[in-house]
Amino acid sequence: VQLVESGGGLVQPGGSLRLSCAASGFSFSSYLMRWYRQAPGKEREWVARISAGGGATNYADSVKGRFTISRDNAKNTVYLQMSSLKPEDTALYYCHAYVYADCWGQGTQVIVSS
After folding, report:
1. What is the per-residue pLDDT across 5-22, written as a single tens digit (0 to 9) for each?
2. CA atoms 82, 88, 44, 111: torsion sign
3. Is residue 59 within 8 Å of 45, Cβ to Cβ?
């Protein structure tokens, strides 16, 4: 199982970013996918999840209405569209799949700062 995140960077408050997570080594279209984040000095927190088929999504209250999770099963990729970014969104963002065990990518850094 391999998960590779990309798309992070430095963005001003109110800006947008789209994160991607490319998956390989498992039957991607059969698995629920999640995004997590970990801010400096804080525990990793769940951000969003999407069902295997993409028809059901859920969000943490802190990002609801600003972030959108989606997936392209033909490309084995899950996305996190982030809008109206706030400084408190600064974190290392990880995608996750439970494939017989917890599987994590290496993370992509998002910094929201003016």
Report:
1. 999 999 999 999 999 999
2. positive
3. no
